[in-house]
């Protein structure tokens, strides 16, 4: 066979192989899954409750508070919500708060009213980490809670209807009267 002919075939095979690899790599990066549509970090804008007349109003628990929800696009997420003033509560620093002896000494030195205030403050913190999946046929995200600031909900699953309005993610309790609006952080 002619060397030029063989070299031409070899060049076509290599070019075709290179093109295939490049197209495969590009198509892998553009694959959009249901889970990836939620990907991002969102800041809580408002939490609302619907009254018996169907009117939505701001929930006092989160009014002026702080919250974040994160979806990684791979099926892992986290949520954290604190009411107004939570970050201003005077407590132990990080090093002290993980030392059981210092925590015990602090609690032992507190009055009953101070203890009540601490329990109220710390119980208002709400957070969990979860795996999540998105329904194939509906705009529903399921959070399979792995751990939570509320021990009794560990290992439970919650469902949320979701919708987007621009950069706002709206999560609504399925068959419930609560919705939260989250603004995507850029």
Structure description:
This protein is α+β, with helices and mostly antiparallel strands. The protein has two domains: 1-31; 35-83 and 124-184, Beta Barrel (Lipocalin), CATH 2.40.128. It has helices at 3-29, 94-97, 100-108, 112-123, and strands at residues 40-50, 56-58, 66-71, 76-82, 126-134, 140-148, 157-165, 168-173, 178-184. The model is unreliable at 4-30 (pLDDT under 50).
Break the fold down into its secondary structure elements and pairings.
Elements: H1 3-29, E1 40-50, E2 56-58, E3 66-71, E4 76-82, H2 94-97, H3 100-108, H4 112-123, E5 126-134, E6 140-148, E7 157-165, E8 168-173, E9 178-184
Antiparallel strand pairs: 1-2, 1-3, 1-9, 3-4, 4-5, 5-6, 6-7, 7-8, 8-9
Low-confidence stretches: 4-30
Overall geometry comes to globular
| SS elements, strand count | 9
Radius of gyration of CA atoms, rounded to a whole number: 25 Å
Largest pleated sheet: 8 strands, antiparallel, barrel
Q: Which secondary-structure class do the elements indicate?
A: alpha+beta
Order of helices and strands: HEEEEHHHEEEEE
CA distance, first residue to last residue: 61 Å
Number of domains: 2
Strand content: 35-45%
According to CATH, what is the class of the largest domain? Mainly Beta
How would you summarize what this structure contains?
Helix content is 28%, strand content 36%.
Give keywords.
Lipocalin; 186 residues; alpha+beta; globular
